[in-house]
Each structure stands twice: as structure tokens, then as C-alpha cells.
Amino acid sequence: MPDRPKVLVLGGGFGGVGAVKKLKHAEADVILVDKHDYHTFQPLLYQVASDLIETTTVGHQLRDLFRDHDNVTVHEAAVSGIDLENRTVSFEEMDPQPYDHLVIGLGAVVNYFGVPGADEHAFPMYTLPDAVRLRRRILERWEATDRDPSLADDGALNVVVVGAGPTGVESAGAIAELYRSNFSKDFPNLPQDKARVILIEGGDAVLPMFKKGLQTYAKKALEKLSVEVRLGEVVEKIEPTRVHLKSGETIDAHTLVWGAGMLANPLASDLGVELQRGGRVPTELDLSLAGHPEVFVTGDIAWITDAKTKKVLPQLGSVALQAGEHAGENIARRLEGKDTQPFKYLDKGTMATIGPRAAVVQMPRGRSLTGRTAWLSWGAVHLALLSTDEARARALLDWTWGIFTHERAGRIMVDGADK
């Protein structure tokens, strides 16, 4: 219908998907545009990289997600510019799109903090292609060393993980578990003592956003998995097979996983507002952009203040999803001539896994969980956040199989294709 309002949603991450879901019954044409044709469940990327789950568990086709949304159209294209004055968004692969309401959920990019060699040689953990590249790199290095065992002395099997936040801790724990439970059997002739997993953190604790007791538990759990935790160390330079620290030490390692930080999508600078830390876009309490009530910002690109606690919310999938849903609801209210509502985040706790049956959960009111109970809570929350019942079933099957057998069926490399 030509006279219907047009809602343009940029980004198929948690924020964009949440917004579109809440606009299912809106009297508007909803257009979702993402540079990929799939939604990525980012909290489980490290499990793809460590062969615990398949790519199809964390990547789901956007058109399939909204197949029963009669008012939704999905396009695969990269955003090249946002013109707020003329209410138009330009794209690299298709014609500019006008809008009446706009949701910006363009996410973030990796922040290498200017470390020389990081962009060329590090393996970040933010996108599905990142996880697939890392998985292949790890498998390839073990196969190469199996053919030429002398590579082990050059650090071919060593993995350095930079950043001891949830991404770094979860990645280091998962890779160490892969090494000790699977590769030790797959490659019995290769020495495990020359297959090190080293976690580098510039601060004085792992999981710095957690309470002291949970930090201590996490560090011990990592060390139990044979992860070497190096606190107070900063990476100065990265080469293809060497990691140089500011302390003067050089670590022989052919693989470096970067989990040290993010920057908001550079398109944030198109919005004409003073950006906050990490280049994030500040929002009004209803998630709209100051001076532009027709524009809403959500996800990792957004600097969101919780209307309930007045605290700035972290860049988490749960925050992005709830904020996206709220943005969609507020647009639906606007379309019905109603006032928007401030965003109040429902905090279900901050959590991270370390290894099999080991996790930490920090609850909103000071309570905390560790061990198997925390791992089960983590699993329940992440299953609920997954996009489809099919993905939940796959994840539950893979986790259960991995827990009881320690097997990871995806330990293969297929040239020119992903599993």
C-alpha cells in the first residue's frame, strides 16, 4: 500500500531482529537490511570456533525468521551512509531507501587499539566468518604439525588469547578443552606440553566486570584446564608467528585470538551527535536519537541508559535484544498516535562459561552462582535467546553429546565450503 509508513531497520543482529519482531502487526511496511543474509547468535561464536557446535546453530537465515511477517521485506546490502535531514539511507549494492521511521542496529567493529600487526594477523571473535576462520586455523595448524612435528617447537600449536572479558575467557577455556579432550587423542604423537593456551590480560583480574570471588573461581577453573593466565601484560606487536609483549617477552604462537574490545560502527559519525566511549551513539530514554524522534538506536552501536537504574548498559546480546524489542514497540506506539515509553532493562544476570560444567553467574541483587548450577543457568538463558526451536534443539544436542562423550564431530576442513 503506497500510503503506508515505511520503517527501515538497519542490521540483522539482536537489536534489529528484536525491533522487527515487535512490528509484525504494525500498519507499516518494514524493510530489514543487513550486509549478510543471516542473523548471528554472537554469544556462541567461540563454540563454533572450537568445534562444539555447527555454524547453522548460530547463523539463521533472516528471510526464514520473518517468513510469517506479511509486512516485512529483507534485503542483503551494506549501508554506506545515513542522511537524517532527508530521511534517506544509501547502500553499496542497491538504491537509496527513504524512511518514515528508522532503527539503527549496525553493531560494532573490532577495536585493535592501534597494536601493530593486529589487523593483519589476529583472529577476532565478533562475526560468524571470524569463528569459521579461527576454527580452520586451529585445525590447519595441528594437521601441519602432524606432518612436520618440528613446527611444535616454533609455536604452531600455541594459541594466545588477548582480553580476559567473557569473550576471551570463554574462548580460552573452549580451546583448551578441545586440545586436552580431543586433539590429544586425534594427534597422540604430538606433545601436549607444546600446545599452550595463553590468556593475556592488561588488568589485574579475569572477568573484570564480575565480583572478586567469581574472578578467583574463573581463574582457577581456567588453570585447571591448563590455560596459562597472564595478568598485567599488554600486547605490543603481533607478527604471523610471534606475539611481542610490552614487558619485553616474545611468545612463539602461530594463532592469536583477539577478544579485547569493540568500536561502534563507523557510520555512527553520520548521526551528528557527540559520541560516547567506544564511538557509541547516546540515546534518549526511549531509545530515540536526540533531535530525531523518528530514529531509534539499539545494539552495540548504542550508548543506552537504563531508565530504571540510570546506569549505562553494557554491550550484551540480552541488552541489544530487549532494546530492539522496545524500539519496535515504541515505533508501533507512534504509528498508533501514542507516546513512547522509556526503556527499562530486565537484568537476568551477567554470565560466562569457562569449561564443561564450569561457569560464573552474577545476579542483579548481589547473588552469584558457580560450577554446574551456573553452567545450567547459563545454558537455559542462552537456549531461550536462540532464534528458533531448531537452533535450540541443535545446541542442546551438541552440548549434551559433548558433556557425556567429550566428542566434537565437526573437526574437519572442507575446502571452499563451511560445514
Brief overview:
The chain is of the alpha/beta class. The protein is built from eleven helices and 26 strands.
Annotation field: number of helices: 11
Task: Based on the coordinates given, report the CATH architecture of the largest domain.
Answer: 3-Layer(bba) Sandwich
Enumerate the spans where pLDDT stays under 50 for 5 or more consecutive residues.
none
Strands, count: 26
Strand content: 15-25%
- Structural category: alpha/beta
Largest sheet: spatial strand order: 5-2-1-9-22-21
| Average of the residue pLDDT scores | 92
From the spread of the alpha carbons, the general shape counts as globular
Distance between the termini: 41 Å
CATH class placement of the largest domain: Alpha Beta
Helix content: 25-40%
Number of domains: 2
